[in-house]
Amino acid sequence: MRYPQFLSILLAAIGFGLAACGSSTDEYADTADDAEAQDLSPEDEAALIRQAAIEAGIPISDVEIPVISARTYTTGHIQLNVSGHFDIEASPELDTQASVSDGGYSWIQYGTSGSEAPNATVTIGNGDMGISVAVGRYIATGTSTECSMTTNVTATKVTGHFTCPKVTGYNQADRSMGNVTIEIDFEASS
User: Fold this and answer.
1) For 25-56, what is each residue's pLDDT tens digit?
2) How far is it, in rounded angstroms, from Cα 145 to Cα 143?
3) Engineering a disulfide at 108: which of 52, 56, 122, 127 sits with its beta carbon 3.0 to 4.6 angstroms away?
4) Is 104 domain-assigned?
C-alpha cells in the first residue's frame, strides 16, 4: 500500500518519538496511568505526533488541523487546477465508497484513485493535511508544510481551499519530475 508523503513523514516522526521514549522496564509499566494514556482524544494524539515530529527535526506547519468526527460522505465535489510539469483542470465527483473520516483521520476521494482520469485525495488528520492529485501516470502531493490550507468543518460538511505554489510532480511512466502548482476548492457532505 502506498501512503501519501505526509503520512510517511508522520509515521517516521512517530517512530522517532517512540524510539526516544525507550522501553519501559520499571515496576510501574502496567499501572492505571499507562492505561489512561492509551485512550487519547484525537486532539491529544495529534498534539503528541506534532511534538514528536518537532523533536525529530521534521518541519511542521502552523496550519490549524481540524479534527473531523467519524462519518461517511454522500455528496461532494472538487475544483482541481494543476499547472506546470503536468496540467489538470477538472471537477471529478466524490467517490463515496472511498471517502471516510474515522479515528482522527479523513480520506476524501474525488474520482477513482489510480485511474487515467483526473483524481484527487484530500487527507486530514493527526497533525497534517494534504492533497494528492493525479491524471494518468502523473502524480503530485502537497502537505501543510508546503501549501496554504484552510478548512471549515461542520457536523455535516467539510469544505476547504488548498494552494500549493510549488510541489514536485512525477511521471511514473518515464520517471520525469518537475514542479507543479496545485489549487483546489472542495466540499464533502455526510
Assistant:
1) 444 444 444 444 567 666 666 566 656 655 76
2) 5
3) 122
4) yes
